[in-house]
Design brief:
- It contains ten helices and 13 strands.
- With 339 residues, it is α/β, with parallel strands linked by helices.
- The protein has two domains: 171 residues, 3-Layer(aba) Sandwich (Peroxisomal Thiolase, Chain A, domain 1), CATH 3.40.47; 151 residues, Thiolase/Chalcone synthase (Peroxisomal Thiolase, Chain A, domain 1).
- α3 crosses α4 and α7 runs parallel beside α8.
- 31% of the residues lie in helices and 23% in strands.
- The chain has a five-stranded mixed beta sheet with strand order 1-7-6-4-5, sandwiched between helices. Strands 8-13-12-11 form a four-stranded mixed beta sheet, with helices on both faces.
- The relative contact order is 0.19.
- A hairpin with a 3-residue loop joins β12 and β13.
- The protein binds oxa(dethia)-CoA (UT7).
């Protein structure tokens, strides 16, 4: 597939990162006490050792707001400076208002326009691209882009195929328009590609709770409002699409895989990540993984990992950072950032 043509963007730069993971840890051994699974199976098939679970009463907007506060502090921007808040999530606080509206209220970001994006695990990179468009074409020059999930609210704790995979958490970045004179501004987003294949929408979904299958007294027992996934089919497409998207985003930025200092892939399965790294010829030290600690937090995986890499000093000025995601829809996206 040819690389999509690059729109001429003015520079927008990631000027701060933040993340928030709930305190409660659920280990593989904990899970083996509630479903027929084992630490050995989960570790060898996924790489996950434990995940975080939000506290009772803690909503997605609480996780998102805390990650956003940390990103704003890291960027040195005030709540009033934020002109746009986009929350990527499949676990909104409620159908409406958007989770971003609750985040705005919690932050006191009174000058922001706020909305959510639903693109499953690709949501953060979709949101990053939408924010770039706002920055490019309008006067909303400072944006909070957040990936936040409380996936524990969508889990069937009796389904070992899915309950071992997911966790809760949030990550955020502050994105700001760089002046023309700052075309080499640190954190500059060089390219983003996105793709969707709705013909495979049924492979990974939460079938119930929406307008096509409202929850009723009759269907509630079958738990339609939880995650259903054909794991092997998802795995296969994830490898192909993430590889393709990575190559396209690099090509759009005029770079190749050998230029990549660090790839931060969506954290769903260590075997998917290794397969992509191998095909891009990237050694393990240039591949970021934290899914052993958090599992798959959908839209949150990339901003959380980006923040951890940033705070751990793994991103040096001038580094080429490749972000790549795949998720339900199917959706996929990739972005190249010059740190
Ligand atoms: O974030 C969006 C993108 N998501 C992904 O990319 C996830 C992609 N898929 C995957 O990561 C993997 O397909 C899974 C981790 C979900 C499953 O791994 P797999 O190697 O594809 O296993 P499988 O589904 O082929 O199942 C193998 C066996 C089955 O038993 P049988 O039928 O061979 O007897 C399952 O019942 O493993 C069994 N199994 C388990 N056993 C112990 C499935 N889940 C478990 C479990 N513990 N938790």
């Amino acid at each position: 597939m040819p690389a999509p043509s690059s729109p001429s963007f003015c520079a927008s730069s990631i000027i701060g990162t933040g993340s928030y993971m709930p305190d409660k840890v659920l280990t593989n051994d904990d899970l083996s006490k509630i479903v027929d699974t084992s630490d050995e199976w989960i570790t060898s098939r996924t790489g996950i050792k434990e995940r975080r679970i939000a506290a009772e009463g803690q909503a997605t907007s609480d996780l998102a707001a805390e990650a956003a506060r940390r990103a704003m502090e890291n960027a040195g921007v005030s709540a009033e400076e934020i002109k746009l808040i986009i929350v990527a999530t499949v676990t909104p606080d409620m159908f409406f208002p958007s989770t971003a509206c609750f985040v705005q209220k919690k932050l006191g970001a009174v000058n922001a326009v706020c909305f959510d994006i639903s693109a499953a695990c690709s949501g953060f990179l979709y949101a990053l691209q939408v924010a770039r468009h706002f920055i490019n074409t309008g006067n909303r020059t400072t944006a909070l882009v957040i990936g936040a999930e409380k996936l524990s609210s969508l889990i069937n704790w009796k389904d070992r195929n899915t309950c071992v995979l997911f966790g809760d958490g949030a990550g955020a970045v502050v994105l700001r328009k760089a002046a023309a004179s700052e075309s080499d501004a640190p954190g500059r987003v060089l390219s983003t590609v996105m793709g969707t294949d709705g013909t495979l929408a049924d492979v990974l979904k939460v079938p119930g709770g929406g307008s096509s299958c409202p929850i009723t007294a009759e269907n509630v027992e079958s738990r339609p409002n939880t995650i259903h996934m054909e794991g092997r089919e998802t795995f296969k497409h994830a490898v192909t699409r993430m590889l393709e998207a990575s190559q396209q985003a690099l090509e759009m930025a005029g770079l190749s895989a050998s230029d990549v200092s660090l790839v931060i892939p969506h954290q769903a399965n260590a075997r998917i990540i290794s397969a992509i790294a191998e095909r891009l010829n990237l050694p393990p030290e240039r591949v970021f993984m934290n899914l052993d600690k958090y599992g798959n937090t959908s839209a949150a995986t990339i901003p959380v990992a980006l923040d951890e890499a940033n705070k751990a000093g793994r991103l040096k000025p001038g580094d080429v950072v490749l972000l790549v995601a795949f998720g339900g829809g199917f959706t996929w996206a990739s972005s190249v950032v010059r740190w």
